[in-house]
Amino acid sequence: MDEETFSAELDPVLAAVGERRAGCPAVERLSAHAHGELSGEELAAVEEHRRRCPLCARELDLLAAGPVPVDEVTWKRAERALDGRPAPWRRAAGRSAGRRAGVIAAAAAALVVGVALWQGRQPPPPAGPVSVTRGSGLQPLQPSGSVHDVERFEWSAPPIAARFLVEVRQGEEVVYRGESTVSALSLPREVRGRLEAGSAYRWRVQALAPEGRVFLESAWVDFRLMP
Amino acid sequence: MDEAAALVDLSVAELVERFRTTAAADCFAELYRRTRRRVFGVALRLVADPALAEEICHDAFLRAYEGFASLRGVEFSAWVCRIAENLALNARRHRAVVERARADLAKEPAAPGPERHLISRQEVEIAGAILASLRPEQRDVLLLRHLERLSHGEICAVTGHSPAEVRSHLQNARRNFAIHWRRRTAAGVEDDG
User: Fold this and answer.
1) Mapping DSSP to helix (H, G, I), strand (E, B) and coil, where does residue A220 land?
2) By CA distance, what is A16's nearest residue in B?
């Protein structure tokens, strides 16, 4: 049977199998099985499910296979991208080294402010974590303050969060809502095109537990697109 | 001695202890530098997509940084890899839903009425049982190609099969799946009637 004929007839069936995972064990349970942490009835239940469910069987095979040996080209590309992402340990590490590099940092900061004033713009807000709902552990990282562009939203979150909902507002009007399973979300191009330079926006992120309940909510973070 | 040089000389276990007691972020930065390639490899194994693996890797370290206090009795990189595994498995499952929605959007709007076939729960169970009955190498390539939408080259990379083996497994998997599907669903219709 050729690919086209199969796809036309049976791809929707396979997609439905992939989508309806209601009877499958939670990912944490599969991971615990892969690491040999289950015993007794729990172990038997996952083993029994594995025999019936090809998707879970595949996931368990992948977990057992361990990390991919990453080739140099792929890694260099990933490393560059990772280095370009904001990370709290990088900013904080920079601050902790500040005593040693204090003079240089002060000079650089003065230069930044000087350039900003020379350009007739407000200096950017100080780098650092944006305020969050007290004790929430859900911390927006970017965007914040005056920005040139908004390509993506990034935040840090506790390990138990399964999904995130991002909401962007202009005043009380909702401009965008999006969902992500990781602590970042790229803003669709058509939404980016609708953001107006000079206008004030705010965003927040909500963390969902594996069963779908919102259990954390960040504070609203203001940002403004620079002209 | 220079502080940065001193960190390079510490073992991972010593860096973990120092970060736990001092909360000095440069200790975590050093842990991140040493372990992120392995964490990236774990994510890449599960999602087979470097851009998504990079997202997951970064996210796993962000969560590890926030939840460092819960690290107890486990080696640091194993702990972060475990976070990445869970994130990657969630991402795989979420991707299946997104792919389905995207495919539905790309189609012509279906006319309402009996000709629009919705896949029932029973049919999903039948399809799952057929997949489970296929030989593992056929099942894997079928799911990688028709569910995860990987190219033949990507399937070779993920499974370690040669291009000829991938073609052969795919052909057999499609034929076997279709034969069993038609037989089982036709039987189901007759039973219902």
Assistant:
1) coil
2) B124
What is the distance between the alpha carbons of residues A156 and B64, in angstroms, rounded to a whole number? 10
* Spatial distance between the Cα atoms of B56 and B41, rounded to a whole number of angstroms: 11
Q: B120: distance to nearest CA of chain A, Å?
A: 9
Q: How confident is residue A183, by pLDDT bands cut at 50, 70 and 90?
A: confident
Contact A90/B29, CB-based, under 8 Å?
yes
Q: Strands A221-225 and A145-147: what pairing?
A: parallel
Is-contact B61 B32, C-beta < 8 A? yes
How buried is residue B22: exposed, middle or buried, by Cβ count under 10 Å (0-12/13-18/19+)?
exposed
A186 contacts chain B (CB < 8 A) = no
Q: Is A200 on the interface with B (CB under 8 A)?
A: no
Q: Looking at chain A, which runs of residues are DSSP E strands?
A: 139-142, 145-147, 152-156, 163-170, 173-180, 184-186, 200-208, 214-217, 221-225
ipTM: 0.72
Between chains, do A16 and B87 touch, taking CB under 8 Å as contact? no
Summarised one tens digit per residue, pLDDT across range B80-96 is: 999 999 999 988 887 76
Q: Check if A76 contacts B (Cβ < 8 Å).
A: no
More confident residue, A14 or B115: A14
A51 alpha-carbon distance from chain centroid: 33
CB pairs under 8 A between A and B: 215
Tell me the nearest-neighbour CA distance from B88 into chain A, angstroms: 9
